[in-house]
Amino acid sequence: MARSALTGTRIRERRTALRMKQADLARAAGISPAYLNLIEHNRRRVGDSLLEQLAQVLGVDPVALSEGAEGVLFDGLREALASAETEGSAQAAGLPELERIEEFVGRFPGWAAVLAGRQARVAALERVVESYSERMAQDPFLLASLHEVLSAVTSLRSTAAILVETEDIEPEWRARFLRTIQDESLRLSDTAEALVGYLDELEEAETGLSSPLEQVEAWLSMRGWHLPELEQPDPPEPETLIEGVAELASGAARKLALAHIARAAEDARALPLAPFAAALLECGSDPARLAQRFGAPMGAVFRRLATLPAGIEGAPPAGLVICDGSGTLTFRRAAPGFTMPRFGAACPLWPLYEALTRPMQPIRTVVDMAGRLPQRFLTYAFCAPRQPAGFEGPVLMEAMMLILPPPPERASGERPVGSSCRICPRADCVGRREPSILSEA
Questions:
Q1: How far is CA 31 from the centre of its chain?
Q2: Are strands 396-404 and 415-417 parallel, antiparallel or unpaired?
Q3: Residue 220 has pLDDT above 80, yes or no
Q4: pLDDT band at 384 (very low <50, low <70, confident <90, very high)
Q5: How is the chain split among helix, strand and coil, in percent rounded to 5?
Q6: Torsion sign (Cα): 265, 269, 273, 279
Q7: Are 404 and 316 in contact (CB under 8 A)?
Q8: CB of 364 closer than 8 Å to CB of 379
Q9: Beta partners for 363?
Q10: Which positions ≥6 away from 33 have C-beta within 8 Å?
């Protein structure tokens, strides 16, 4: 269980609020008053069992004593500090000390809440800008609308310049120019109105299921990425699982969902849930060991690990991304903290793409994902050929990357990666395809 330097302070505050004497709490917890006094002044660490005893006597959850209500404030302030450090060396002399963050929260909780709230607001606005930037780079409607706006503005400027700079224009031509200004103004107004309406819809569109893949992902996310019906000895027909599902709004999304169900059913038959969960406790989450244990394809193990139901003992929080031979992402389940691109190609340094060049060779890499608070992940990547049309058909490549929590110890060779070039802050990345809107800012 996580501990902070203020655990003892919270114990003292809770005891004082209950009007309980220190000796009474120490007696109920089975320790001496002198030892409790050291704990309350943060001069002794509290073990799990003792913390649970103290929490039971004080009538609170142990987490409330170990982490307190300040956990969100700590994260927000750390994020604000990370943002300030990336703004350049001009502010370096005035940066606060990270090791005194708990002291700051304890002494000035109101100011801490204000700073964390402002940081959350800044982060939300930056995500909106990033989302709009990605859409402007990829969305054909936006590109066409912006081109229409620029065309209308250019026409207006040219016509207006002729009227201003030419003194002796015949009435007939003056009327034509004025009519042109009126027509172009109406065109600009209509285009701008349509563009604003489209952007307003995008504001709701963070639920916006603009592609079949996103619709399928929303449906799977709603179901916890697991389909328990497929674990039954006699699973239902796939069509019954998607009947009346609002998230699958298009025919293409329903076809993708049916294909996912068929593949998940195959994985469930190859890797039955109960034996697979038992193997996790024995073998850990190494996909190669699990594949050897069950004699199953590596891809099936990857997919099974990433779609296990919640509550499976020994199952780490996992993410999975799959691409075809063109590099197009065909499945995305993000691990907590691992950012997936919404549009366009992902980071070229992902082990996923390296696996495409090394078919049937497993790749294990620890990556460092760029962001406000960079996070480490353990990734397993694997690529296998498929021949859906038989020997006479084309060979299709499919690569997968399993994303797991990192090992506790850092090691040399950890790979810095990002989400996609457009929103990656790593300015000196050797794999960059285009400038980042963050580095430019």
A1: 45
A2: unpaired
A3: yes
A4: very high
A5: 55, 10, 35
A6: negative
A7: yes
A8: yes
A9: 381
A10: 22, 23, 26
Helix (H) or strand (E) holding 381, with range, is strand 375-386
Question: If we measure between CA atoms, which residue out of 73, 137, 131, 129 comes closest to residue 106?
Answer: 73
**Which residue bears the tokens 């991304």?**
321
Q: What is the DSSP letter of 311?
A: T
pLDDT in tens, 127-176: 677 666 666 666 666 677 778 888 888 888 888 888 888 888 888 888 88
Residue type, 372: R
pLDDT at position 349, please?
95
In angstroms, the CA 265 to CA 276 distance is: 15
CA pair distance 70, 68, nearest whole angstrom: 5
* Radius of gyration (C-alpha) of the chain in whole angstroms: 29
For 113, the token pair is 């809440």
Residue that has been written with the tokens 């701008």 in this structure: 192
The proportion of the chain whose per-residue pLDDT surpasses 90, expressed as a percent, equals: 32
Q: What is the predicted pLDDT for the residue at 197?
A: 67
CA-wise closest residue to 10 among 33, 41, 44 = 41
What are the structure tokens assigned to 31, written together? 């320790």
How many Cα neighbours within 13 Å face the side chain of 27?
A: 5
Confidence of residue 438 (pLDDT cuts 50, 70, 90): low
Which residue matches tokens 């959350």?
120
φ and ψ at 430, to 5 degrees?
Answer: -75, -20
Out of 35-44, 75-84, 308-317, which region has the weakest mean confidence (pLDDT)? 75-84
pLDDT at 54 over 70: yes
Tell me which DSSP letter residue 205 carries: G
Local structure of 5: helix, strand or coil:
coil
Alpha-carbon distance 19 to 31, whole Å? 19
pTM above 0.90, yes or no: no
